[in-house]
């Protein structure tokens, strides 16, 4: 069934490419109260038309047999780009030059040099940029941040550890674009590692580490694409962080954050186990119980409900920023480009450490 007519102030999206993740984000665009879809482009007109039909696009949405046609459409305000990472530089820059606001799938680029070109094009054209890291927009994320900011209950940040892994089987490891060096050369580091690195930076208030050292025994496929890896991050003030990302391990999506006075853990930070609620767990001022037969107080579970899925909240926030620019002449929001660039810098540092026999890499903004 096609989507209902959008409100008159809706940001009009074009989608460039029919990747599987675009099914989820197109649903989010239609769920968000301030956005709609007006165009979809693929290298095949038939594929674009089938994608629109199968995903409930409005009957008025146009299907195109090229990506350029989406960017040339005057009815398109913003584009969502779920293409392979190797294509991001070309199409994101072109979209920005065509005055289309850019919601870019992660990993956003193959390296920070490419990302800088994308961000410069967006800045020059006055269009909003945001990467599609969905968990950042769940209300749970803000509530967890509130706990980390509580000096009495959490205190000084000491350590962070994050894991994001999944095992999609032998066919994935042979055919998926994320294991192809010409499409997504960063492999697991760019896909699952992006989330882990973002989680560490988020916990550290986006302070960059002083050095990044990849852990030995990273795993690669025959083409040299990373299938699993980990790294340690050292910060100027002494805090440390580690992460592990993989295409070869059971589905796991965890953040553990340790403070002088408290501890936070979330088991499903990338995609909540339930769409409408996100749990997390905290300990504060924990001690051993009498005879060390337990701890007190016990960990507390917090359940954070949301009226919209986190990806729809992402689209809603992005669309709100677009409307401020188009309707009120506001400046672009610089928070999202800055966060994206810092994440990419750490990705680059991990890759450089792997390439240099796991030597420490200094990170300079």
From TrEMBL:
Gfo/Idh/MocA-like oxidoreductase N-terminal domain boundaries: 11-130
Domain GFO/IDH/MocA-like oxidoreductase: 149-264
GO MF, one annotated term: nucleotide binding
Membrane-spanning parts: none
Recorded superkingdom: Eukaryota
Coiled-coil intervals, chain numbering: none
Family: Belongs to the Gfo/Idh/MocA family.
UniProt protein name: Uncharacterized oxidoreductase At4g09670-like
Gene: LOC105178946
